[in-house]
Design goal:
This protein is α/β, with parallel strands linked by helices. It has helices at about 40-50, 70-75, 95-105, 110-120, 140-150, 170-185, 195-200, 230-235, and strands spanning about 5-10, 15-25, 30-35, 55-60, 65, 80, 155-160, 190, 205-210, 210-220. α3 (about 95-105) runs parallel beside α5 (about 140-150) and α5 runs parallel beside α6.
Length: about 240
């Protein structure tokens, strides 16, 4: 995976959310964005996934120039898992996955069913295929959201704090699913407050504070942080 950002800025209601963001990352498959609340992490993820556009600057994800590509075309290349799952509550688990495959990716019903059933089996969700999404637990719903995200074989999967609304047990269910993706070399970018998970699953860490990238590097920066900001942040989450 490659991410290139040059002088990216984003403002909401005259407040600077992202300030001169520059990145040039090559050949990393797992990237974790960490930092305190309000640092701009989720905003950066939304720009990388083209849910929003920057006020200024350039963004490239792999070979795609996000200032040039049509959003609908880009969305076919990526997956996104939000903080709260976005399943259709009245549809079954199976249909939540096959719907996008049929209507957006032009798969036949048979092709879509095979993809969905294979993935649900792989991620130990087969027993839930005929349940409506509204009948699932929070952890099950988020795991189905992940399966739906990877069903389209995305080049990159984006996660925006996928465990923020879950209790510790359900959090571990979801993180174990993402670890499995990591083991299969899936490219992903995750905003997370789970630092132990970031240490285990990510190749590369981006630490943000006050709308800026303060420190970044391979995952071992979490063992030897150079900036006072990252040292203080890790201290606050009882890891430093």
């Amino acid at each position: 995976m490659e991410l290139k950002l040059h002088n990216v800025n984003k403002t909401y209601d005259e407040k600077d959310i992202l300030i001169d963001i520059n990145l040039d990352i090559h050949d990393e498959s797992g990237i974790a964005i960490i930092g305190p609340s309000g640092a701009g992490k989720s905003t950066l993820l939304r720009l990388l996934s083209l849910i929003e556009k920057p006020d200024s600057g350039e963004i490239h994800v792999n070979k795609y120039d996000l200032n040039e590509i049509e959003p609908e075309e880009y969305y076919k290349k990526i997956g996104f898992v939000f903080q709260a799952h976005t399943l259709f509550p009245h549809l079954t688990v199976l249909r939540n996955i096959t719907l996008i495959l049929e209507q957006v990716h032009n798969k036949t019903k048979e092709e879509a069913n095979k993809i969905a059933l294979d993935l649900l089996d792989r991620f130990e969700l087969s027993e839930h295929i005929h349940k409506r999404a509204s009948q699932l637990s929070g952890g099950q719903s988020q795991r189905v959201s992940i399966v739906r995200g990877i069903a389209i074989s995305p080049e990159v999967l984006f996660f925006d704090e996928p465990t923020s609304a879950l209790d510790p047990v359900l959090t571990q269910e979801v993180l174990s699913t993402i670890i499995k993706l990591r083991e299969e070399k899936m490219n992903f970018v995750i905003v997370t407050h789970e630092i132990l998970f970031a240490k285990k699953a990510a190749d590369f860490i981006i630490f943000m504070d006050c709308g800026k990238i303060v420190e970044m590097g391979h995952v071992d920066i979490l063992e030897n942080p150079q900036s006072k900001e990252l040292q203080n942040f890790l201290s606050n989450v009882f890891l430093w």
